[in-house]
Amino acid sequence: MSNNLHNEIKALIGNKPALVFSKESLDSFLLKNFANSLKYLGNNSIEIQGSSKFEFKVLSISIDPTQLEADTTALQTVIDKTGDRVYLGIVPSITAVLEIHYAGDQSKAFSRINYEVSNFKSYFDTDENVLLLNNFEFDVRSEVTPLPNKDDVLIETGITDNDLLRIEGVLAYVIPNSVIKSAFSSITKIKLSELFNGVEMSGKLSLDYLPNSSALLIIPESMTLKGNTGCPLELGSNVPKIESNRVTDGWEFVSNHNAIILSRVYDINPFAGIYFPKTILDLKFSKLYPSMSYFDSGGGFLNWEIKASALLKLLNLSIDIVNLGLNLKLEFGFFGEVAAYADVCHEQEEVASIKFKNNPQTDASRVELFYGFDYLESGKVIVSPQLIDVTIGKVTPTVSAVSRYAHMFGGDAAVVGYLIDIIIGKVLAHNIPIEINHFIRNQMNLNSFTLMNFQSLERFSTLKKFNSATFSGDVDSILVGIVSRG
């Protein structure tokens, strides 16, 4: 089914693909490190680099670090644009007070500095397939307030007014910029091609945002789905045993498959995801499918050769909004030929040939597959196939030719009967069902691959570990993602 995030994306970009980072992920990228920085400060005295006489401690800050670590909504982030630049802003302003004291003795304090950080903006940018998160703008207002007993402490510690003024200036006007940038730099860049490794993007990456969902969109000029990377999948239990039965005018096939679709995704907003218009799915799954080829030969009563082929083509791809995945209906034509040869005067002469096939109009062979999106351990979302149904149409033989040499082997009827009942019958009863089984397995494996790998960003998820795939869509597009679901 389609949720609000999917609907908002579709309304904004329609038939374009996009990578999506939710408000949850953006808040985490920006605020996780800030929360850890606040926890570190606590009531500890912090050394001032280049000065052995002074230390400082944080007396107060308007954000509770414990609360911020558990709930990033303690600070509100707002996504917006300035011109064509998308940024993440922070409200309200952040205030803090620190106290400068004599090194090793917090009771000997000289002065306090009040800070107010406002108009904070973190601008997003891209460089090839990299999302940059390190472009910060903000205003800092600092005010130094001497403590009533400052002069007494200066005399007691032997520190001059000039030494104190120098340290106050550094803490009030020099250090804040670098400290704030460091505190908010949870992550400075994201390599998109490593996270969304199931897609290939080309051209310029454009940025946009969703005002209602507060999500960031990264929109490439073009996107294609990759195929299988070569890693084998264990699909044997999902491909049925196929058997053939001899009937009057050919062979019929039956399978022992009873499909139950197992959908393991959730229709909820993802931490991050990919928005696919159906045109990209059609392009991926409508590409030419490899054919099945079979060859065998032997001797005995006659020397013989048999060839068989099958070629898949896509009939229909639809988005399954009930089971949350993709339905593929494929058709394959099955055909072959057997020929018998005899050694006549040291030359191989054809005795007879018989063609066999199923009629695509009346006995079409079809395969129906369901492609789901499953979470795999280590932060991966994979495209995973399930076989729904396989139907193999009746195969009928047709005699192509019988030569004058047939009388050497008992006549036309004997040769034709041998080729149909013994050679074709044996191959269709045993070899071809196995080959079709492998054929279907290979097609499933061909379009099975890792779509996303977010292991490197698990520390930013709610539970510090991803555990579910997400899916939302309608008949025109889908949004697939990954989430940490508690």
Number of strands: 25
* SS-based class: alpha+beta
Biggest beta-sheet profile: 8 strands, antiparallel
Shape: rod-shaped
User: What is the alpha-carbon Rg in Å?
Assistant: 35 Å
Note the total helix count. Answer: 8
Low-confidence stretches: none
Helicity level: 10-25%
C-alpha termini separation: 21 Å
Could you tell me the mean pLDDT?
86
Structural features:
486 residues; alpha+beta; 2 domains
Describe the structure.
- With 486 residues, the protein is of the alpha+beta class.
- The chain folds into two domains: 23-187; 227-483, no CATH class.
- Helices cover 23% and strands 48% of the residues.
- The chain contains eight helices and 25 strands.
- It has helices at 4-13, 23-41, 65-70, 150-157, 161-184, 192-195, 278-285, 412-446; strands at residues 18-21, 46-48, 51-61, 76-82, 85-91, 94-102, 105-127, 130-146, 189-191, 199-210, 215-225, 242-247, 250-255, 265-266, 272-277, 291-298, 303-320, 325-344, 347-358, 365-376, 380-391, 395-402, 449-453, 468-473, 477-483.
- Strands 2, 3, 4, 5, 6, 7, 8 and 9 form an eight-stranded antiparallel β-sheet that branches.
- Strand 2 and strand 3 form a beta hairpin.
- The longest helix has 35 residues, at 412-446.
